[in-house]
Amino acid sequence: MNAQFVVMGEKEIPASSTSAGCLIVNADDWGRDAATTDRIHECFEARVISSASAMVFMADSHRGAALAQQRGLDCGLHLNLTELFSAVDVPARLVERQQKIARYLRRNRFAPILFHPGLTDSFECVVAAQIEEFHRLYGAAPARIDGHHHMQLSANVLSQKLIPDGTIVRRNFSFQVGEKNWANRTYRKFRDRRLQQNYRVVDFLFNLQPIEPASRLQRIVSLSRHAVVELETHPVNVEEYGFLMRGGITALDDSLQIAPRFSLPLAPGSVARALPQTAVNG
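Structure (tokenized):
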């Protein structure tokens, strides 16, 4: 790749035309259980991740919160609507409401995009309870919210406006041309535009997987020089943990510096709006 250009799908954008970006490596599921928390903590201590997304009402939530505050790990809320709460002190009524939501959302792949009027009270209760519990454990309301299995984007959550305005909310995954069909990309673009009306979002979101071919991650690293890129990872996964701890991301570019925290140095979506959406985002 020409060092003076960032290649976005089929179009080249001069580097001088965009603002400086950053690569945010965020580890999901902090507090889910001791093994997951410990793996993420090791990655944080090795400085190969920027931040984590914390689950509440889970088996290791209390220890995770204490450890994050002690070690200075930047945490947002990992909203959980699909995996049953595993902590022993969760109110029975809250457990019941979350179970109803989980059964619905896991029914089929279309359930998350369909608004369920009969579950509005349950969604409101379960989301509010998790935001409140995060505040109690971490001492402040979550500045950013993403979701277990990306359910922060479910129809009920967005239509009911259950996430406070101005919060950083995880967007849809970004894809290059050919990776998703036209209908899929159009729908994702519609949801991202809706997010940007009320929330702050990064320019692009990718999953660490697949790790191979290396050229995929190299393109993501190059993109992060001119846009705010979030790379989602799950260190409890052996392959991802090994890759991170071996310095796999920084090894792709000796000059790369992973962001020390989750931050949005650019205006939300500024670079993404300046580039051809059909070329990169879906």
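The CA atoms of residues 212 and 236 lie 18 Å apart. DSSP finds ten helices and nine strands in the chain.
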